[in-house]
Amino acid sequence: IKVLDPQVGAVTVRRARRKDLRVLAAIMRGTMHWRTPPTEDEVLDMLYEKGYWLALSRKGGGLSGWRAENLVMCIDDFYVYPPDYYAQVGGPLLETIEAEASALSCEVAIAFLEEQITPQAIEFFKAQGYQRRGLDALYRIWREVAEEFLTGNRFMMIKQLRQDRIMRPL
After folding, report:
1. How large a percentage of the chain has pLDDT more than 90?
2. Closest listed residue to residue 165, CA positions, set 74, 97, 99, 70
3. Among the listed residues 160, 100, 168, 152, the one whose alpha carbon sits nearest the alpha carbon of residue 131
4. Cα(140)–Cα(127) distance, rounded to whole angstroms?
5. Residue 48's CB: how many other CB atoms inside 10 A?
6. CB of 81 within 8 A of CB of 55?
């Protein structure tokens, strides 16, 4: 997917591949100031755990790691560098993974964000329709999935993707 933004140029969004390890590690290094960013070997392990999408432009980059489980899309890695480009680079990235989640009939998207994440990230998710919520605001099945991801100093931002819940197996 390509999106043209006058501020950052063309933004290309695609699945991350093994050959992207250096780029993925660089984006994480540029955004993770609260903990040690992963090494390239650790990033390779991460690629085997879940789906990663990469957004690239001539001025910035972004990446997102996510999984779909029991009709719940869980975003537990979402980084944009530099942070000033959340809307321009993160927007097409989030739209892409939300489209993938909709194709999988996900009912809800939950972004698990670390307390130390930049204010730009929180404002970005709010602008995309996500709201900060606690576990008690979730349906039981969503809560069971969320509890697995809600670790450490994380909080949740939630966006309902479908108006009607799926009540029978697909």
Report:
1. 51
2. 70
3. 160
4. 27
5. 7
6. no
Radius of gyration of the chain (CA): 15
Task: Assess contact for 51 and 65: CB atoms under 8 A.
Answer: yes
Bond into 82 cis (ω within 30): yes
Q: What is the pTM of this model?
A: 0.87
β-bridge mates for residue 74, sequence order = 67, 110
- DSSP labels, 49-86: HSEEEEEE-SS-EEEEEEEEETTEEEEEEEEEESGGGI
Report yes or no: 157 and 132 within 8 Å, Cβ to Cβ.
yes
CA dist., res. 14 & res. 61, Å (int): 12
Give burial (CB, 10 Å; 0-12/13-18/19+) of 100. Answer: middle
d(CA 99, CA 136): 27
Residue 3: predicted pLDDT? 64
The CA distance from 134 to 76, in Å, is 16
